[in-house]
């Protein structure tokens, strides 16, 4: 992997994450070394339970690492305290959760602007309108999450992650609940926002077509990176995933 020569947005060095300890320990990340460059859109694929969400949560400082380092804009975030991490996440990192994590008592609009409300800031109205219209949420703004479909909740979560124009965006299956047309719209939008805002996006997806929108795709298996492709195509990613499944099946038979 040669990369695009851009400066590093975030880097994991020997990153280990264990859940629990002793016999019941789960080794979710087994010494991951990976560098994500600024202005690049990377997809992360791999089997369920392989550690994709764990990698994203740990990189974003939402979950602590067991060992290793995470360097974001030159600073090691594994050494930051909660206040420093909160500021970082509020202003510079956007996170689209696999399970949305919308606040049920608030409307779609209030949820979208929540990161700014918490920071005591006002949204850039033109950017808010752009997000709402691109994501097709205009008519749903006054509704609470339980009055929205899964796809609409997902789009609210996307708008919320992007409202503060973060330089680094983590998206955990952002199109998992969208139909193919909405999914293509969201992916094109993410791709253009990488180009226009020089944003760095790291996106988990189970969909090889979604991964083909990215500049780079990584395959994760059992807490490790097993493939790293530039300019991924859907066919290539499906072939890599199939090969990984066959390898895992053979390993189980032994
Ligand atoms: N809080 C936790 N406590 C214990 N084990 C956990 C916890 N969170 C995740 N795990 C385990 O860590 C491993 C990696 O989980 P992770 O959620 O990162 O997988 P994933 O690749 O995102 O899967 P999926 O595609 O299903 O979302 C799994 O074995 C999972 O059961
Ligand atoms: Mg996951």
TrEMBL record:
Pfam family, one: ABC_tran
Keyword tags: ATP-binding, Nucleotide-binding, Transport
SMART domains: AAA
Signal peptide from the UniProt entry: none
GO molecular function: ATP binding; ATP hydrolysis activity; transmembrane transporter activity
Gene3D superfamilies: P-loop containing nucleotide triphosphate hydrolases (3.40.50.300)
PANTHER family recorded: ABC TRANSPORTER RELATED, IMPORT ATP-BINDING PROTEIN
UniProt name for this protein: Peptide ABC transporter ATP-binding protein
Species whose genome carries this gene: Bifidobacterium samirii
């Amino acid at each position: 992997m040669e990369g695009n020569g851009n400066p590093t947005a975030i880097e994991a060095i020997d990153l280990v994450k264990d859940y629990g300890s002793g016999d019941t320990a789960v080794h979710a990340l087994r010494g991951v070394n990976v560098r994500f460059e600024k202005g690049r859109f990377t997809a992360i694929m791999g089997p369920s339970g392989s550690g994709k969400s764990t990698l994203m949560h740990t990189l974003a400082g939402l979950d602590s690492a067991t060992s290793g380092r995470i360097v974001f804009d030159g600073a090691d975030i594994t050494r930051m305290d909660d206040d420093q991490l909160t500021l970082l996440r509020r202003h510079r990192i956007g996170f689209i959760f696999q399970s949305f994590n919308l606040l049920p008592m608030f409307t779609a609009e209030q949820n979208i602007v929540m990161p700014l409300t918490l920071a005591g800031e006002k949204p850039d109205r033109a950017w808010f309108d752009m997000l709402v219209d691109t994501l097709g949420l205009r008519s749903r703004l006054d509704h609470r999450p339980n009055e929205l479909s899964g796809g609409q909740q997902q789009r609210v979560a996307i708008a919320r992650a992007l409202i503060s124009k973060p330089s680094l965006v983590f998206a955990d299956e952002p199109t998992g609940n969208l139909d193919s047309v909405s999914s293509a719209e969201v992916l094109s939008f993410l791709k253009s926002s990488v180009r226009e805002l020089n944003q760095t996006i790291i996106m988990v997806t189970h969909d090889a077509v979604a991964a083909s929108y990215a500049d780079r795709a990584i395959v994760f298996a059992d807490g490790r990176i097993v493939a790293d492709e530039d300019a991924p195509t859907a066919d290539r990613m499906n072939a890599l995933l199939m090969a990984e499944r066959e390898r895992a099946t053979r390993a189980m038979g032994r």
